Amino acid sequence: MELSEKTVAKYRTWVLALIFSVAVVNYVDRQAFSVASSAILKEFQMPAAQFGRVVSMFLLAYAVAQPLAGRLLDRVGSVRGFAWAVLWWSAACAAHAVAGGVWSFGIYRFLLGFGEGALIPACIKTISEWMPKNDRAFGIGIMNAGISIGGMIATPLIAELTLRFGWRMMFVVTGALGLVWLAAWLTFMGGKQQPVLPQEAPTAPGASLSWVEMLKKREIVGLVLSRVISDPAWYFYLFWLPPYLAQVRGFDLRKLSIFGWIPFATSLAGALLSGWAARKLLQAGWTIDRTRKAILLFAAVLMPAGIGVGYVDDVYFCLALICLVTFLIQVWATSLFAIPADLFPASQVGSVVGFCAATGSLSAMLFQLVVGEVVERFSYTPIFATVALMHPLALVCIQWWIRRIERLPAAR
Fold this sequence. Notes:
mainly alpha; Growth Hormone, Chain: A; 17 helices
């Protein structure tokens, strides 16, 4: 039975609400270790290089899981695939409570990353199934808004839980959040019929692409290179901002809970602005290609301002520059994440997104190891300068390899 437009609109609102909320839960779980790092590092006498190795274990599993999650989602569907992933990462998060040192933290971070690797492929696949093409960047903006809100509330929430109950109980509480979301997801999505998208009617579902076939497509090469270059920037700020503010700028847990959420609030603004701007530009008659690339250009041109983070003495000016960078990173990410759904049919989006995201996560994992060594031997300053130049270089790759962003003839 075909759904009415009114019913579809109502369902889409709920789908977006669920995508937003799972992104919030995901990033609360993901940030728990970094925000509580001052207490954990002190208890286990963990230097920066070892912290970098623990963080890299999350990203190693994240990289491995994303292409597997993409294929699993294309095979079993977004409803069941999402449910399995959330159950896995919630249990892994809670398991951090029994960690006894660097090795056990590394194992639990790996397990968490393996479950959380499904987040982006599952969200984008769900968006591609439920949203028409002109609204997909808006939907991805909602997802990225959830990511930013998760990072924003994680800092005060985790700091407060750690101060009141200790870091072990904090992991139990944050792990339980996913189970609440899982109940809501299964209650709403069970048995829901995916709507027919009129704008996609001429496009038949495409056959699944192998990884070798993906690398033969220049557009996917462009997406892979752009993510390999730019993804480490977000993960650097995500994982290293709390210890940087604590070690270099003198923030204790209380001060971190007061100020540490602000960079994620500006990243939220970036996600929402990017999705809103894309929607308006497309409604005004701009092509998908012109819209996506204009937004990417805006972010890339301003990103080098982040070089100043490592040089300014005033802590509040430093925080302002960090906020600008996190704002621009999410402006960039919202547009970039929409491109696979612009190029490929919904039946292939999960696999493509998972493959591209895996390469970005693998790059980010290796970068964490570099960060740990550079911070321990020198300082954060060279890292801030390097990160500030990643997005302009990534934009060059997009422009060179993806000449025009539109549905590929091979996918029809």
